[in-house]
Known about the structure:
By secondary structure, the chain is α/β, with parallel strands linked by helices. It has helices spanning 17-32, 43-52, 83-108, 126-133, 146-153, 155-160, 207-218, 235-241, 254-258, 279-284, 305-318, 340-346, 358-363, 376-385, 398-408, 421-433, 435-455, 460-473, 475-478; strands at residues 8-12, 36-42, 63-68, 117-121, 138-142, 180-181, 190-191, 225-227, 248-250, 292-296, 321-325, 350-353, 367-372, 389-391, 412-414. The protein has a seven-stranded parallel β-sheet with strand order 3-2-1-4-5-8-9, with helices on both faces. Helix 3 runs parallel beside helix 4 (126-133), helix 11 packs across helix 16 (421-433) and helix 14 (376-385) crosses helix 17 (435-455). The longest helix has 26 residues, at 83-108. It starts with 7 loop residues before the first strand and ends with a helix.
Amino acid sequence: MGSNSKPHAVCIPLPAQGHMTPMLSFAKLLHSSGFHITFVNTEFNHRRVLCSHDGDLGSFPDFQFMTIPDGLPESDDLSTRDATSLAQSTMNNCQPHLRRLLSNLESLSPEIPKVTYIISDASMSSALDAANEIGVPCALFRFCSACAFMAYLHYSKLLEKGLFPLKDAAQLHNGFLDTVVDWVPGLNHMRLKDFPSFIRSTDRNNMMLNFIMHHMDRAPMASAIILNTFDELEQEVLTAMAAILPPIYTIGPLPMLLEQIPENPIKSLSLNLWKEQSDCLDWLEGKRDQSVVYVNFGSLATITEEQLTEFAWGLANSGYAFMWIIRPDLVKGDSAKLPLEFLEATKDRSLISSWCQQETVLKHPAIGVFLTHNGWNSTLESICGGVPMLCWPFFADQQTNCRYVCAEWGIGMEIDNDVKREEVQSLIREMMDGERGKEMKKRAVTWKEKAARAMQPGGSSYVNLKRLINEVLVHKRSA
């Protein structure tokens, strides 16, 4: 197939690490299936990526990066953009830039094939309008669990029923959030506190609420919905969702599918916004199996200095070895400063780093438990590694993921939001050596095996990816 006759997919993630990484994985899968890929970053994030990769992502004739502005003021500060400001700006400002980029792609070079399909982050649904203007179909990829997606889809119903906005701030603490919501199809025993956290507001004009509801209203306009999950993990909610949305394709966990494509320079490509530290895997070598606690709160969560200190002493007092990933911007408004006494007390059994290859770390036999914020990428990577979780959700869909990890899948325990060192110590010890921890480890391994079966030829995710490519992405091109 000549380069200009290939199907050409344009992949557009929301400009955040937790969205860029799975979109890149999907783009690699399409590329390995014969697609020309245009991957769209914001100018700001692309500068960050180049900085963390020493200025070089490589050059590939059939996998190109293009950029658009994010609409926020220019800045030489390469810290993570404020999530609320970024969400508002992408919703209000990105469509004309996407339209211009899509219109110009074909004039860049005769070697670039005609755009045949757009895969947009469901939180960048302005791509639907840009795609429509150039006459190209658009699928939406939602980078959260099916459970969280279904919860988001019912935000408008929660509003109609008067369950949000909150009447006053007291409802955050007086038991109101324990109200059971039993009418969302496919979601069982959900309390308000288990819904994605943006409903915890007294302001009907809350920006993140309106951002989510805007994009959820547009989901039915897509030609297909893609989810990074697998059928057996979330079957009940997927069945319910199929009745209200365009065709749904579950193709996760993406890291496992990606393992099946041949080695090539693009397979090892990453878009990390922080420079990976190479010493993490070396440090794990020689450690006993399941002897290390791995701690990482993801790319967006922030904590207070007090919370940092409580986690630190909980880890120290547990007595176990640990690897802790602490981003430069983890602590609100300041750089993370760990107590010197803590550093001295744990220097022989700890590694503190700024970023790592998490997927690889979680597959290492030395990891015994993952202390996590329960972002969906992290949750899936933990399942892929067969590692049980200690859950401390921060915001958005993480509360929903935590609820399913702990109450439905039986592979985690939750740490109270008001974190105390005694609870951290106790839960680590229970998870590492207690009877509940041993049971959760067995179930985590079982879920890992189920995920692996979904990836094999004939498995649900393997078949769904083939169907998505052959029946939707390529078929639409020739229709």
